[in-house]
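Below is how a single chain appears once it has passed through the pipeline. First comes the sequence as given, then the structure the pipeline wrote out for it. We keep one example in the README because the format questions we get most often are answered faster by looking than by reading.
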Amino acid sequence: MFYMGLCLFFGPHGLMLIQPVRLRIQTFIPTALYLGLFSLMSLFGLGLISAGYDPKFAIEAPVLPWVGILSPWLMFAAFFFLIAANVPGWTRYRVQHPMTLGISLWALTHLAVNPDLHAWLMFGCFFVLVVASALTASGRQKNNPKPAPRWIFDGLTLGLASGLTFFVYTFHGALFGVELS
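Resulting structure:
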């Protein structure tokens, strides 16, 4: 189940990074249907990953205890960049790939504290995917005009990232089945 979920989630995401493949698919399938199918496969893949995740497969991966200590701050930064990528604030205006930065921080933090095979496969795939996405982003440029950045959105991003960090740290076990120590 876990491995099928990895394939269903990361396969289409990785395939869509290849510009000729993406354009070919988009010429045959209407945009709404394409987005709908892509979203359904992604959700189904994430569900299978979540249902099949098993931390019992330990591997000889280094655990960095200092990352565990810094993880609230690292996760706050990850959430901040994830949110900033979607609002017209100064962070989005100044940071070239805030979504990539946020997901990379999230994935690398989890890799540094989880010495099990499924964690390394899942978080490693996320890291490789966002780095590949950033490297191929220039070929997928959309010429949408960027709205003028406003400080209010950076303040909103700080507040939302703080709240989300608190929520995830408080309810991590209930949300993801893994208690934080």
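The CA atoms of residues 94 and 149 lie 9 Å apart.

See the next section for the split statistics.
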